[in-house]
Design a protein that fits this description.
Chain B: This is PAS domain-containing protein. Chain B: Keywords: Coiled coil, Hydrolase. Chain B: It comes from Paractinoplanes durhamensis. The complex is a heterodimer of chains A (113) and B (823). Chain A is of the alpha/beta class and 113 residues long. Chain A contains four helices and five strands; from the N terminus they run ββαβαβαβα. Chain A has a five-stranded mixed β-sheet with strand order 1-2-3-4-5. The radius of gyration of chain A is 13 Å and the shape is globular. The relative contact order of chain A is 0.18. Chain B is elongated and about 180 Å long. The chains are: A alpha/beta (113), B alpha+beta (823). The interface between A and B is medium-sized, with 18 and 23 residues.
Chain lengths: 113, 823
């Protein structure tokens, strides 16, 4: 149901969650549930937002809750967003935690080593 | 006293007086008897002593006689001194009466004073009985005449009775005046159903009132079978011959019953006569019918039988005529409706209530068609079984008497295929079952054919529509900020077939756009196919160095090979998207309408020539050029838009021109649909095609969306394309998209939290230096939001836009502005 927006794979020893397309009020809830079901057991999680073309406050809420939960469980997490683009703009406007944002996947994976 | 001659034989005058062959009375003037002879005493049984000196003559008369004595006898006697042959009934001593004729003479004294009355009394017994005999004979003659009159009246009534029911009504009224019967009933034979049916009675409380089979043991059925008159003279006779009558006779106090078969055919022999009914009439008291009466009764039976026969023939004839008229009218009615569903409904409406009290039409076409009318449908399972049997066997099923389903199921077939069934329940008392069956089978044949034709029509119509839709829906060029196209196609109303109107827009190269609208002669699948061929031909013929005039010449050659396209009309235009130069030509088509940014709209009347392949018209093809300033709109349309039966065509042009001008600043999307809505009535008989080309893109975008999260993405797609077309920088574009999404999400989550049907209006405009977006809802405002998530949404709106204004005077309107200057 959410396959068009979210795919799961591994990058090195980290679970990779790749989001794509427009994330908004209409699909954020479903996407959140799909991710939680898959990354429960992972020790490290990379969330790739580089192909997200739109992100609204519901998307920010999803990421906020997701990252918060992962950190509480001691799961190390990085968000990958482009240097510019809709996702970065929204996250910046919301003053999202800069320390877990990276601009490419390699660097994010390296951060979690 | 005079001296009497002495007779030669010994005849004593006293003895002569006493034993004369008449009675003698002598009375005083007051009537007191003073002398009476033996003859009178012997006739009356009185003794002389009882009368003489004790009684007056009038005392001996009956009471009527006494009155007559006072009013006639006494006055006449006093005036004339005598009266002759007055009839008096004398009351004898044993109270019997003696009819007499009386002569009296009044004797007067010297002073003319009355002294005595001498009376002779003649016995008139024999004469009176003879008179009575005469009277009785006269009464018999009168009775007979009355019967004849009643019979004549009935024969006249029967001749004027056109239906069985009226014949029965006339016959049942006969026995009472004609024979003095107490009541009578009439039964008719229904040969088709092998029944005898009670139809009328002067006293329905008597007799057994149920229908009976012709083979019944009941008296009525027996008499109907034998065809002979039966007189049941007494209850005893009934017990012996027709036991079923006994109870009824006892209960209703009848002692004589006459059972008269109503027959038709040769009168003098029983063979060959047919019994059509039975008239039963009864008498209180045992009544013996005379031979004369029995002859009249038989005559009545024959007259009534013939009248029934006549009425039946007449009934049958009229029924056949009605049926034929019904079938013809049904066929005509069904032909009026082309489409399947209305035709099916109309069939059922014809059948109920005219020939049936309930009917259902079930067709296995498409998703199935079910049309029903009338009350209290029969058992659904039984009906389904009968329908299945009739469909599989393709044979109509007529219910046998007493069948619990009680309705006829007719398979509807056409071209060897069973389309479905028509089930009808008819009134139970219909006669002539064989004719009825033939009629129903005829009805089913006609209905089957009419419905099959409607099905084919529906199929062809659907094919034509699909073809036309697929052709018209082909991708039109878009996404180029230099132009935008809005189109509208409206099919003909009144369930008419698709027409041959079409539009097209395509790019010859990246800077040259073609727009065209045309109209193919004819309707239906042929017109749709031709339209497709013509469109393809235009796309194939159009080229960088061709131009409208040469293209139309190419089309003229084309229609020489595709005859159905002959006389098609086309308005064809090419636009250079860089310079705005328009080149156009019209082959028999209505002139395009141009609205420049300034001034009034103008019909483009140059470069006109005859329709494609016209033999009589001017087919020298020319073209005309003019430059369109940015912001111009060009409208191409077909004649259905302005031709209206109730409006002259020049007025149509005027209205179109005025309305097009009025919408100069209206957004392009929906413009053509709006024009069609306004100019074309709901019942338009022609299809309509419009294409509006706008050079330079629209300044504003307006959208209305429902309070549904899924719609936000659709709005964003439109808004994104519009922002791109206006060359808005990506950063600004993303910010506007984010703010607008959040504002709409706010309206859905907040303003319309209790109203899933709320509508949100979004308007975005680009002015010289800024983008402005308004998002308005009619929802309710709950004061400052405590929802953290929504709070973040509002924060995002404020962060991404330069100015944000909330207007809560009616619902909530968010007005947001972002400057085009780099931030």
């Amino acid at each position: 149901m959410t396959d068009q927006w979210v795919t799961f794979s591994n990058f090195g020893d980290a679970a990779l969650v790749r989001l794509t397309g427009e994330i908004d009020l209409a699909n954020a809830g479903d996407i959140g549930r799909a991710i939680v079901n898959r990354v429960n057991e992972a020790g490290k999680v990379l969330i790739d937002l580089t192909t997200v073309s739109f992100l609204d406050s519901a998307g920010v809420r999803l990421l906020d809750a997701l990252v918060g939960d992962l950190l509480v469980h001691g799961t190390r997490t990085r968000l990958v967003v482009g240097e510019r683009g809709a996702a970065r703009m929204t996250l910046q406007l919301c003053a999202f935690r800069e320390d877990i944002l990276t601009t490419d996947l390699e660097r994010a994976a390296a951060d979690l080593k | 006293m005079t001296q009497e001659l002495r007779l030669p034989w010994d005849d004593d005058p006293d003895d002569l007086y006493e034993h004369a062959p008449c009675g003698y009375l002598t009375t005083l003037p007051d009537g007191t008897i003073v002398k009476v002879n033996q003859t009178f005493l012997a006739w009356t049984g009185y003794t002389r002593g009882e009368l003489v000196g004790h009684r007056r003559f009038r005392d001996l008369l009956s009471s009527g006689g006494q009155i007559y004595h006072e009013t006639h006898y006494a006055p006449l006697l006093r005036m004339q001194d005598e009266v002759n042959e007055l009839a008096f009934d004398v009351v004898c001593s044993d109270k019997t009466t003696l009819p007499t004729l009386v002569n009296s003479v009044l004797a007067r004294g010297p002073a003319k004073e009355p002294r005595a009355i001498r009376t002779t009394v003649f016995n008139a017994t024999d004469r009176r009985s003879y008179e009575q005999e005469l009277l009785a004979a006269r009464k018999r003659a009168e009775d007979s005449e009355r019967r004849i009159q009643v019979l004549q009246q009935i024969v006249a009534d029967l001749a004027a009775a056109p239906t069985e029911a009226e014949v029965a009504e006339a016959v049942v009224r006969a026995p009472e005046p004609a024979f003095g019967a107490a009541s009578s009933s009439i039964y008719l034979v229904d040969a088709d159903r092998d029944l005898i049916i009670a139809v009328a009675s002067t006293d329905p409380t008597t007799g057994n009132w149920d229908d009976m089979p012709r083979s019944s043991k009941r008296a009525v059925a027996r008499v109907a079978e034998r065809g002979d008159l039966h007189v049941v003279g007494s209850v005893g006779e009934a017990r012996q011959h027709f036991p079923d009558l006994v109870d009824n006779m006892r209960r209703s106090g009848r002692n004589t019953v006459v059972l008269l078969p109503l027959t038709t055919g040769p009168t003098d022999e029983n063979t060959g006569t047919e019994t059509l009914g039975v008239l039963a009439f009864s008498f209180t008291g045992e009544r013996k019918l005379s031979d004369a009466e029995l002859r009249v009764v038989r005559l009545l039976g024959q007259q009534a039988g013939q009248a029934l026969d006549r009425a039946r023939l007449y009934d049958d004839g009229r029924r056949r005529e009605e049926r034929a008229a019904f079938l013809a009218e049904t066929t005509r009615c069904l032909d009026e409706m082309h489409r399947l569903n209305p035709r099916a409904r109309r069939l059922i409406d014809r059948v109920v209530p005219e020939i049936a009290d309930w009917a259902v039409l079930s067709l296995s076409i498409g998703n199935g068609i079910h049309e029903e009318a009338g009350g209290s449908p029969p058992d659904a399972d039984l009906l389904a079984q009968a329908q299945h049997r009739a469909t599989v066997a393709s044979v109509p099923s007529f219910p046998p008497p007493g069948d619990p389903l009680g309705c006829v199921v007719l398979p509807l077939t056409a071209r060897g295929r069973v389309l479905g069934t028509l089930s009808v329940r008819m009134a139970p008392d219909r006669r002539g079952a064989a004719a009825e069956r033939a009629f129903l089978i005829d009805l089913a044949d006609r209905a089957g054919l009419a419905l099959e034709n409607a099905r084919l029509y529906e199929q062809e119509r659907e094919t034509a529509r699909t073809l036309q839709r697929s052709l018209l829906a082909a991708d039109l060029p878009k996404g180029d900020i230099r132009f935008a196209v809005d189109t509208h196609y409206q099919a003909a109303g009144l369930d008419l077939e698709v027409g041959g109107d079409w539009f097209d827009a395509f790019l010859i190269n990246k800077d040259r756009l073609v727009v065209a609208v045309g109209d193919v002669v004819g309707r239906g699948i042929d017109a749709a196919t031709t339209m497709g061929q013509l469109r393809s031909a235009i796309r194939a013929l159009a080229g960088d160095a061709v131009g409208p005039a040469r293209l139309l010449q190419g089309l003229d050659r084309f229609v020489e090979r595709v005859e159905t396209a002959r006389m098609a009309t086309v308005a064809y235009a090419e636009v250079d998207l860089n310079t705005g130069e328009l080149t156009y030509a019209c082959a028999g088509h209505l002139p395009p309408l141009l609205q420049a940014p300034l001034g009034l709209p103008e019909f483009l009347l140059q470069a006109r020539s005859a329709p494609l392949g016209s033999r009589a018209g001017d087919t020298r093809r020319t073209e005309h050029r003019l430059r369109l300033p940015p912001g111009s709109r060009l409208l191409l349309y077909t004649d259905g838009l302005i031709e209206r039966r109730t409006r002259p065509i020049d007025q149509g042009f005027e209205v179109l021109s005025r309305e097009f001008a009025r919408r100069r600043d209206a957004p392009l999307p929906g413009l053509t649909a709006g024009l069609a809505d306004l100019l074309v009535g709901r019942d338009h008989a022609d299809d309509v095609c419009l294409l509006c080309l706008s050079l330079g893109s629209e300044e504003r975008i307006e959208r209305s969306l429902g309070a549904d999260r899924q719609q936000i993405a659709l709005l964003r797609a439109d808004l994104r394309a519009w922002l791109v077309a206006h060359g808005i920088e990506p950063e600004c574009r993303d910010a506007v998209l984010l703010a607008c999404s959040e504002a709409v999400a706010n309206a859905i989550e907040h303003g319309y939290r209790d109203d899933p049907f709320g509508v949100i209006d979004v308007v975005a405009t680009v002015t010289g230096d800024a983008v402005e977006v308004r998002v308005a809802d009619k929802g309710t405002w709950r004061g400052a939001s405590t929802d953290v998530a929504r709070g973040r949404g509002l924060q995002l709106i404020r962060e991404s836009m330069d100015q944000v204004l909330f207007d809560r005077s009616s619902g909530t309107t968010v007005i947001m502005r972002r400057s085009l200057e780099a931030q």
